[in-house]
Design a protein that fits this description.
single chain; about 70 residues; elongated
Length: about 70
């Protein structure tokens, strides 16, 4: 599965896990990427999106449907 959000471009971040003794070991923070079928310009498209974008998409869809 792609590790990048198709909407915002969020991708894995790299850094160090730091223990109590201050030893640094490399690690990665991976975004929570999900497959979703979203309506983009009235056309259903299957995208890989992060859960933050998915949540925002559903919020704006509710607002647009309500007004």
């Amino acid at each position: 599965m792609a590790r990048r959000c198709d909407l915002c471009g969020k991708k894995p971040a790299a850094g160090y896990a730091v223990s109590h003794s201050q030893r640094h070991t490399k690690r990665r923070w991976r975004p929570n990427i999900q497959h979703a079928t979203l309506l983009i310009d009235g056309t259903p498209r299957r995208l890989t999106v992060c859960t933050r974008c998915l949540r925002t998409y559903h919020k704006t869809a509710k607002v647009a449907a309500g007004t």
